[in-house]
Amino acid sequence: MWRNGYPATAMNGSPVVGRLPAWKVKAADREKTIGACIQKGEPIMPFVLVQMWEGRTNEQKAQIIEKVTDALVESMGVEPEHVSVVLDEYPKENWGMGGRPASTVMPE
User: Fold this and answer.
1) Are 73 and 85 a contacting pair, CB within 8 Å?
2) What pLDDT shows up at residue 45?
């Protein structure tokens, strides 16, 4: 789904590929979407991927996206519409630290 030549966004601000938030789409499908942007001559940069543990609220995620976008607009002079921010969330048991699952190293 495209709006004004840009990928549509979910309610939390994350990009949407088709009808799914980008974090639910396989990497190969994301690459196809980026490829489609390039073929159409649409700006897709800068692109920021934030990898983090799950558990933040939608309000916190929206604030992360807003502040990362603002930082790039200020530091690089790009238009906000050209900035893409994707939040990839992982459960702590799927993240390793020092050879152990983060869920055991840093329990809640």
Assistant:
1) no
2) 77
Contact 15, 9 (CB under 8 A): yes
Task: Please tell me whether the overall predicted TM-score, pTM, comes out greater than 0.85 for this model.
Answer: no
Residue 52, strand partner residues: 89
User: Which amino acid, one-letter code, is at 38?
Assistant: I
Residues recognised as catalytic: 46
In angstroms, the CA 99 to CA 87 distance is 24
pLDDT in tens, 70-84: 999 999 998 898 899
Tokens 């690459």 — which residue? 31
* Per-residue pLDDT band at 53 (split at 50, 70, 90): very high
Q: CATH says 2-105 is which class?
A: alpha beta
Compute the distance between CA of residue 107 and CA of residue 53 in angstroms, rounded to an integer: 12
Q: Domain map of the chain by residue range?
A: 2-105
Distance (Å, whole) CA 83 – CA 76: 11
